[in-house]
């Protein structure tokens, strides 16, 4: 009203200041003048308005400046009545919400102390507890149904629980007592009951135990100390250290906080955080497992001895830093090292007692003596860009000092505001720092109850929505560092190791100046490196000699044994040695010099392999060349590296003859007569054996030069390790220019075995491989995984066992091994040992191995395993001075040892870059460019190229995890994912290979459609990790070496996006096409405008492309502006793609019943809530089992609504009847009431079941519509967030509640664009208020799902249906409450639980 009475050019100064704060503008009054700090994008008109209103603004600020902080009022002259309500603080509210059954990390906030007290006087302890509960009133606080707290009387019968353990001796009782720690929270009365303290006494033979559980809702760190001191005094009969605080102090504190929200200091805090919040980085990202629904905490502690702690404080002072800043920086430092993220946000617990404004009589002792939770939270950015620890600690302290004055807008509220402005925004951090170091305190409080005979056995602290809570405190002069963490959320032992590194860092900082200014982090403690150090102890004496020794000895000892078996017959060791000797002599005669590169250009055959051996025998290094290479590439490679001699078959010779550059061509088999074998040399270890050139499609090929010593080391180790011997036949499917062939050839000769060389087909040919496995009697298989996977698919189980049953050793390397492949191999070849191998061409074929004897269900991939002989691995952080990374943390993979290549041939600069020297050990390293991590047992886990993780619209997605989830879907045999586009246009694309018999037109289990896949994946993956498009392909494309071809997948994705992919109907439905018509292009442009994501296909789903309920409203508005047609919001379910929206514009009619999701099972009809549309059901729809066919009832426009709710339900019943199928009815909010009235029309519809989800009905007859409550409810619904009623509220008496909230919460959104939606909301709300509720129908199974955490008076004039005094829920109905609010009950994890409830209740009826 005040606003309307002002002149047209005037504005309410408080409203102006609030709006300025929301735009990030701070305004201060200094010496009668305004001091303004505005961001560059602050609206000019607001700043001009501030200038025009200078005097009233100055007066408003001066009237309530709010500095230096809230002022707690003096005690009331008259005591407040018992049970007088007062507000909860932000932190209390967060604890209250987090105590409910949150989808993840839910727990009561409490601390438990366990004591052994052999001489416990139970009666005295009972009395001490009651005395202290009476002394400190906040221990008796309870939360009422209105969300406020009250102090309640202590029940006369309250006392500790007494447990008889007299049947247990002391040792047995101690073991049992430790187990009680897990259930300590069960001792706490309900938050709504009080008191906020629970205790149990366990009396065993010869001893007793006390478990004390304290709820943090009413206690901060100082309060715990006060409570423990007073309990000890009361138990031992000492007088208390100080008089009790007058009643009501904490209540007045909370009221002071509420009053402070109207101060300019608080508005400036809003402005400060409006500008800071968008710049806050995310939380740390240490290795973590999935977050459990219930948080169970474990505790790790270390202590810094008093002298070391004193030295650390002294060095901190010398650096100009507070002890708390240094300790917080040290915590950030280890989190930085464990997460690989330089900058992140921590939640810092702030003690506000000392920040309160002093009263008129000076310092008040009450804040220091009052038991209550005076804590707040602050979101602290930890900037990791500083070069040294000192610089990073200084930056942290500066940031803390800049943010601390604004902590009266708590981190809890900052996060809530961010979510209101951008629903789904992830602001905040589950990593907490809390300091109990209080330099301002004049007393020293005990950390726990200290009384004679009381021995502390354990402590345990739980806080909701927290992963790792780090506290620092001082006990007996020592620094105590505690790490309370959710045990199930981290790999076992990880937090122990993090704490050990933290202790080591603090000791280093206390002991010397150097760690403060060192450019890199200190080494990890030796204990953390012990397992990998042991794994790297691979020194082993191998036979040595030369790679031709096996050929020489075979020719001498077993001359008639077969050395090579190919399409042109078998070659014995004698024949092979003779041929190699003759061809080597020919090379030498042609002028081949020692160390010269000699090409081998031929089709795959035993002759090709013998030619490679001939080059080695001549003292040269063979260079495999491909007959299918482009002539230009072949010519350039020969010229660049001066290769003047080539051994070639007829085809190779023809290719070389066509080159412009002359090349000396020699035949694979030099002419001569069989006779005595020519002597085969023993090359020196440093002489080159071969140079393999990579076959990348861009850039200059790299020639990997492998010396004899490296090759021989790998070959001899593998032959000995896996017992390869003369009876083995090694099937060689790899081309000579793929280094797996080097083991096939030299490994077979080293073992005196046979290498089987099938001819090479133009494309992968499983029939050919199967023939050669069986025909040759192969015993050793050595390929990339994809080839064996392909063969198994081709053969089928029965035939695979027949063909592969003779294999005894299967070597798989070069690419990811599908987790199901080892077991498939064992079924086909039960005697085969399956070995995963890894390494690099630059490190002599392989450097590590892992015998796959089992598949752990938790694996994402088969581990890399352990290093081979005389080879070593390091996982390092090159940006941190090649520091070792901790266990479980991804780092860059380096190889060291005898297998390293000599160089990239002829590329010294590249060699220097990729083969650095370890700065501490002096080892020569090879930088693989891969990511890996160590497990605590020293096992390596390969994580892929840098990296297999990708960014999709700002979120980091693990492609391997998505592929694993896709491969687990019915009908899917293999999957691969790629990311196309960048930034906002990035899209995650999935390619699927169907199981045999699962493709289109077959009888096998089909691959689910895109909608079903999205729903299934949504139960295990975050929404941003669910692919936006799915393409079914016959097989994943492979490179020539049998590895997955990522470039081909990207090209295929682009092809599909452009509409050129072609394919069957299923594939087309999954992939879609580009816009073709002018209107489709215009719709795609509107999508991109509202979603910020490029639309590549008219078949993309709106929500999968980044759409939300907010952007849905904008899209509907923009479509109306562009085409003059107002589509219902619910049409986004029926027409969720550009193509379907285009069709809908052609045939637009207002329909009540819209199809939402197809299915071949039971039909579910969802009834709209008070908003009139169905968008609120989106999470529930995704969570429902795939077979359900889902329809939705949407409201007609407000101008066409009938006069009563039953009339509207009658229309809905007719629409459902026209469907002609039995249906289940489900309604949330007003939808439940409408569903019930629809079900009454048994002449039209007989529902299979009726489900009402948190429905409200009129509390009294004739209630008026509260415009303020209606507007608040509409915006709460629209913004998709409801934490408490104070979040979205309208000032009393405001003439335009809707306009006020639109300007406050959506200042950039035209208010008129939402007015139509609001008019419908109001009209439906009024129908509900005017409707006289009736008992629910009993003609079908009835399920009522209340939201337990919603207040009964949340909506003006309404009351929860299940609580209506008329008893509307009939006997026999199932009432299944969920611990949610009215809005959260249909979202996230709650939607999944709701779907399970519905399905469990109705499945039998649908069968």
TrEMBL record:
Keywords, in A-Z order: Ligase, Phosphopantetheine, Phosphoprotein
Signal peptide: none
NCBIfam families: AA-adenyl-dom (TIGR01733)
Disordered, as annotated region: 64-83
Lineage: Bacteria, Bacillati, Actinomycetota, Actinomycetes, Kitasatosporales
Pfam families (alphabetical): AMP-binding, AMP-binding_C, Condensation, PP-binding, Thioesterase
Similarity section: Belongs to the ATP-dependent AMP-binding enzyme family. MbtB subfamily.
Keyword Ligase: yes
Pathway terms, separated by semicolons: Siderophore biosynthesis; mycobactin biosynthesis
Domain of life: Bacteria
InterPro entries: AA_adenyl_dom, AB_hydrolase_fold, ACP-like_sf, AMP-bd_C, AMP-bd_C_sf, AMP-binding_CS, AMP-dep_synth/lig_dom, CAT-like_dom_sf
Swiss-Prot/TrEMBL cofactor(s): pantetheine 4'-phosphate
Domain Carrier residues, every copy: 1074-1149
Transmembrane segments: none
SMART domains: PKS_PP (SM00823)
Organism: Streptomyces violaceolatus
Entry keyword annotation includes Repeat: no
Name assigned to this protein: Phenyloxazoline synthase MbtB
């Amino acid at each position: 009203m005040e606003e309307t009475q002002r002149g047209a050019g005037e504005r309410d100064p408080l409203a102006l200041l609030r709006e300025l704060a929301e735009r990030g503008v701070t305004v201060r009054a200094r010496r009668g003048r305004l001091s303004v700090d505005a961001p560059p994008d602050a609206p000019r008109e607001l700043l001009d308005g501030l200038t025009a209103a200078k005097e009233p603004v100055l007066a408003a600020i001066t009237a309530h400046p709010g500095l230096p902080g809230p002022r707690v009022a003096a005690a009331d002259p008259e005591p407040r009545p018992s049970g007088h309500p007062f507000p909860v603080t932000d932190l209390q509210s967060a604890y209250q919400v987090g105590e409910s059954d949150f989808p993840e990390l839910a727990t009561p906030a409490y601390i438990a102390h366990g004591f052994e007290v052999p001489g416990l006087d139970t009666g005295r302890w009972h009395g001490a507890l009651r005395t202290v509960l009476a002394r400190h009133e906040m221990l008796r606080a309870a939360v009422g149904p209105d969300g406020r707290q009250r102090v309640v009387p202590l029940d006369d019968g309250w006392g500790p629980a007494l447990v008889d353990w007299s049947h247990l001796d002391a040792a047995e009782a101690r073991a049992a007592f430790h187990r009680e720690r897990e259930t300590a929270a069960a001792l706490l009365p309900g938050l709504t009951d009080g008191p906020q303290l629970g205790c149990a006494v366990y009396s065993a033979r010869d001893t007793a135990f006390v478990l004390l559980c304290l709820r943090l809702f009413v206690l901060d760190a100082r309060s715990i100390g006060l409570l423990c001191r007073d309990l000890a005094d009361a138990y031992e009969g000492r007088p208390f250290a100080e008089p009790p605080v007058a009643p009501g102090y904490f209540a007045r504190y909370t009221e002071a906080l509420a009053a402070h929200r109207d101060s300019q200091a608080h508005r400036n805090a809003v402005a400060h955080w409006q500008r800071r919040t968008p710049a806050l980085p995310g939380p740390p990202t240490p290795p973590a497992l999935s977050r459990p629904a219930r948080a169970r905490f474990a505790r790790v502690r270390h202590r810094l001895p008093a002298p070391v702690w004193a030295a650390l404080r002294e060095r901190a002072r010398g650096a100009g830093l507070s002890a708390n800043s240094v300790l917080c920086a040290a915590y950030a430092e280890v989190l930085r090292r464990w997460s690989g993220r330089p900058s992140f946000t921590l939640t810092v617990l702030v003690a506000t007692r000392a920040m309160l404004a002093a009263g008129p009589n000076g310092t008040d002792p009450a804040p220091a003596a009052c038991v209550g939770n005076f804590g707040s939270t602050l979101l602290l950015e930890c900037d990791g860009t500083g070069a040294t620890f000192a610089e990073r600690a200084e930056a942290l302290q500066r940031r803390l000092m800049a943010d601390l004055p604004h902590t009266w807008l708590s981190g809890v509220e900052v996060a809530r505001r961010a979510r209101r402005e951008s629903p789904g925004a992830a602001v905040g951090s589950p990593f907490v720092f809390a300091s109990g170091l209080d330099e301002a305190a004049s007393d020293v409080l005990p950390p726990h109850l200290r009384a004679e005979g009381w021995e502390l056995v354990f402590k345990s602290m739980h806080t909701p929505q927290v992963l790792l809570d780090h506290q620092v405190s001082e006990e007996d002069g020592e620094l105590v560092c505690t790490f309370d963490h959710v045990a199930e959320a981290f790999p076992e032992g990880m937090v122990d190791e993090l704490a050990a590194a933290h202790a080591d860092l603090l000791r280093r900082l206390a002991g010397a100046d150097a760690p403060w200014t060192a450019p890199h982090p200190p080494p990890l403690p030796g204990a953390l490196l012990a397992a990998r150090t042991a794994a790297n102890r691979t020194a082993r004496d191998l036979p040595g000699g030369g790679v031709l020794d096996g050929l020489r000895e075979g020719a001498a000892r077993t001359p008639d044994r077969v050395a090579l078996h190919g399409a042109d017959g078998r070659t014995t060791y004698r024949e092979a040695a003779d041929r190699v000797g003759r061809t080597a002599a020919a090379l030498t005669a042609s002028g081949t010099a020692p160390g010269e590169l000699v090409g081998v250009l031929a089709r795959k055959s035993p002759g090709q392999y013998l030619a490679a051996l001939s080059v080695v025998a001549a003292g040269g290094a063979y260079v495999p060349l491909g007959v299918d290479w482009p002539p230009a590439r072949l010519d350039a490679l020969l010229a660049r590296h001066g290769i003047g001699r080539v051994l070639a078959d007829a085809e190779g010779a023809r290719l070389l003859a066509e080159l412009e550059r002359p090349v000396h061509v020699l035949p694979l088999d030099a002419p001569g007569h069989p006779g005595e074998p020519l002597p085969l040399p023993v090359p020196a270890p440093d002489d080159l054996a071969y140079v393999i050139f990579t076959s990348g499609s861009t850039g200059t090929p790299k020639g990997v030069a492998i010396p004899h010593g490296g090759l021989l080391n790998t070959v001899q180790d593998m032959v000995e390790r896996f017992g390869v011997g003369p009876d083995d036949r090694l099937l060689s499917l790899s081309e000579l220019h793929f280094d797996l062939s080097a083991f096939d050839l030299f490994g077979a000769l080293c073992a005196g075995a046979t290498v089987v060389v099938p001819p090479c087909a133009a494309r992968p040919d499983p029939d050919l491989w199967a023939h050669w496995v069986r025909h040759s009697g192969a015993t050793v298989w050595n390929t990339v995984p994809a080839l064996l996977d392909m063969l198994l698919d081709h053969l089928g189980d029965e035939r695979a066992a027949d063909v592969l049953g003779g294999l005894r050793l299967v070597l798989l390397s070069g690419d990811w091994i599908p987790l199901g492949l080892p077991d498939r191999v064992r079924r086909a070849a039960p005697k085969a040992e399956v070995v995963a191998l890894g390494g690099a061409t630059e490190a002599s074929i392989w450097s590590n191995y892992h015998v796959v004897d089992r598949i752990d269900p938790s694996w994402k991939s088969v581990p890399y395993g352990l290093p081979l002989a005389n080879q070593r691995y390091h996982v390092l952080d090159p940006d941190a001075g090649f520091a070792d990374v901790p266990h479980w943390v991804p780092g860059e993979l380096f190889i060291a040892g005898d297998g390293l290549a000599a160089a990239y041939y002829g590329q010294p600069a590249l060699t220097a870059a990729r083969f650095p020297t370890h700065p501490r050990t002096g080892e020569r390293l090879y930088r693989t460019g891969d990511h890996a991590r160590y497990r605590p047992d020293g096992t390596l886990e390969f994580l892929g190229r840098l990296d297999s993780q990708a960014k999709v619209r700002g979120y980091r997605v693990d492609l391997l995890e998505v592929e694993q989830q896709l491969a687990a879907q019915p009908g899917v045999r293999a999957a691969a994912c790629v990311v196309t586009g960048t930034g906002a246009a990035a899209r995650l694309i999935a390619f699927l290979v169907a199981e045999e018999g699962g493709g289109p037109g077959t009888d096998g289990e089909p691959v689910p459609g895109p909608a079903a896949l999205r729903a299934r994946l949504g139960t295990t993956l975050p929404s941003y990790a669910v692919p936006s498009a799915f393409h079914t392909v016959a097989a994943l494309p492979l490179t020539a070496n049998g590895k997955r071809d990522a470039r081909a997948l990207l090209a295929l994705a682009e092809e599909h996006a452009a509409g050129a992919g072609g394919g069957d109907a299923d594939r087309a439905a999954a992939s879609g096409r580009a816009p073709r018509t002018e209107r489709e292009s215009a719709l795609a442009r509107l999508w991109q405008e509202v979603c910020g994501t490029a639309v590549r296909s008219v078949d993309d789903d709106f929500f999968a492309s980044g759409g939300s309920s907010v952007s849905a409203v904008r899209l509907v508005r923009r479509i109306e502006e562009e085409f003059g047609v107002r589509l219902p919001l619910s049409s986004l379910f029926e027409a969720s793609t550009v193509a379907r929206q285009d069709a809908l514009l052609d045939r637009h009619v207002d329909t009540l019943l819209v199809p939402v999701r197809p299915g071949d099972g039971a039909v579910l009809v969802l009834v709209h809530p008070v908003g009139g549309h169905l968008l609120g059901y989106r999470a529930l729809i995704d969570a429902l089992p795939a077979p359900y066919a889902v329809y939705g009832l949407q409201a007609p426009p407000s101008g066409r609504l009938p006069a009563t709710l039953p009339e509207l339900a009658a229309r809905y019943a007719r629409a459902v009847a026209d469907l002609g199928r039995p249906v289940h009815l489900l309604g949330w909010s007003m939808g439940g009431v409408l569903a019930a009235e629809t079900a009454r029309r048994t002449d039209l519809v007989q529902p299979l079941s009726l489900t009402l989800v948190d429905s409200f009905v009129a509390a009294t007859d004739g209630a008026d519509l509260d415009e303020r409550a209606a507007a608040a409810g509409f915006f709460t619904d629209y913004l998709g967030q409801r934490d408490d009623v104070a979040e979205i509220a309208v000032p009393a008496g405001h003439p335009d509640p809707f306009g006020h909230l639109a300007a406050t919460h959506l200042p950039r959104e035209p208010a008129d664009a939402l007015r139509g939606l609001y008019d419908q909301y109001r009209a439906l709300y009024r129908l509900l208020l005017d409707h006289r509720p009736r008992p629910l129908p009993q003609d079908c199974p009835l399920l009522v799902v209340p939201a337990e955490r919603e207040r009964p008076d949340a909506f003006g004039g309404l009351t929860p249906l299940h609580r209506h005094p008329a008893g509307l829920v009939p006997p026999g109905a199932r009432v299944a409450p969920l611990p949610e609010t009215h809005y959260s009950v249909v979202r996230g994890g709650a939607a999944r639980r709701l779907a399970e409830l519905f399905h469990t209740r109705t499945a039998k009826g649908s069968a």
